[in-house]
């Protein structure tokens, strides 16, 4: 049971079910475009809006199911010819819906009595946020012809460059100790207890990137260049402004978050300096020892043990969460282990049409892998909550997307800390802090790097050396003097797929938002107990129908106020202080 089962979607590309789905999708696209071609000022508003909702719902459901099968198949076998061909076909089909969406988004704002229609119709009332979002977004919609051109050109532009990055990093062979290993394998060695292994793996990783650095640099430049041009055409000042808008949040919320993170960098840097001393370094930590384990835990988890551990700790929060995790294992939703052609990292894909999710990890038995598993199961739990809503009300944005996942991490980490003592307690605590440091400090470096790439790409394509320099500069700004400057990782832009999405820029700050938002929620949960779980479930279920600030208000949190973020960071400081106390006599 190391691989996921996609039969609930389709048995295969040659199956009648998949062929029928594609034919049905084509027919739906024809129906959608016929609807769009008949839109004009004389259209009767109420039945027209209801018809759009019906067509859009069926179109999204059918497309998501077919696309999900192709995307998931490709993510575990980047070289599969059929999957690559079908991905190209799915992009073509998606582009054919451009007229449908563009024309309706221009027509809807012409309905002068829209609010009155919504107030007096139960169906429209259900879709109020969705409809108002279309009206608001219409200010950034271009002409029908321009939208159609953009939709088509991105297939051979940003989407193709993104696929190239995924392909090259998934099949990259890394020379290590006379063997050829995958990039995922070599990066997992950063968690080894053997200092020589960690350093050798780091050096092998950097050497391997030279094989693909030029191609990946072309990918990054092409994607960011495309985004820069399109956001200007749409009327945004920058890609960051578009990312904040698409996140359905205010810029003051992002500013409050980033400023709070920057103000608290010293406490993370002190932790890293202490870790350096514990590992025998003078006062700075080499990059290759960032993930070096401290303390001792004899446990290496099998897949079954990892799932049992996660489910047991999820049960302390609630049966619904634990049962969802059990179901994901029993029904083979998870693709666990690394292999050639499989993409690195981890993700969860929520599939609304079948009310299921699929989870990809690169599990090798470490406690860190267990935490990653808990994180992705949190995404599946969020999906399970939002499946209670219609598919048009089920699209939540990046910042709140990390809430349930980070909350689930916290549940497992806290439970593990409470059940441990001595060397094992130190091990678990430091594993937690290691992850938190990544989500605050490293995410800040990624945010700064992406911002500098977008700004630099305005003037000229960026060379490999320039990209490496920008990455090191960003790491220095975030990690300060806690890291040995000779060991900064100049290639961290190569292996992060988040940078390579033309339609989704700055997929970094949402992780920090999710962590700190979840910390704040967990603190309230600890105070209120199990009665608060229903409020959390309600919040997760409504994330597709509210702006970020209004989602937070459901539990009386003001995310535009730095005091909230500082309060969440103080929760982290308690763990940092515990670590400093536990290691005071170990230096």
What does this protein structure show overall?
The model has no long low-confidence stretch (mean pLDDT 94). This protein has four domains: 16-156, Oligopeptidase f, N-terminal domain (Butyryl-CoA Dehydrogenase, subunit A, domain 3), CATH 1.20.140.70; 179-207, no CATH class; 208-294 and 421-582, Neurolysin, domain 3, CATH 1.10.1370; 303-418, no CATH class. The protein has 587 residues and is mainly alpha-helical. It has a three-stranded mixed beta sheet with strand order 3-5-4, sandwiched between helices. Strands 1-2 form a two-stranded antiparallel sheet. The chain has helices at residues 16-37, 45-76, 81-95, 98-107, 114-119, 122-126, 128-137, 144-156, 158-171, 183-188, 195-209, 213-234, 239-246, 251-263, 265-278, 303-315, 319-330, 367-386, 398-401, 403-418, 422-457, 464-479, 509-528, 533-541, 548-553, 562-582, and strands spanning 174-176, 179-181, 334-335, 347-351, 356-360. Helices cover 64% and strands 3% of the residues. Helix 4 (98-107) packs antiparallel against helix 8.
Instruction: Tell me which CATH architecture of the largest domain applies here.
Output: Orthogonal Bundle
CATH topology of the largest domain: Neurolysin, domain 3
State the major sheet.
3 strands, mixed
Q: Regions with pLDDT < 50 over 5+ consecutive residues?
A: none
The helix content is 55-70%
Strand order of the largest sheet: 3-5-4
Proportion of strand residues: under 5%
For the record, the count of structural domains works out to: 4
Task: Count the DSSP helices.
Answer: 26
Structural class by SSE content: mainly alpha
Mean pLDDT reading: 94
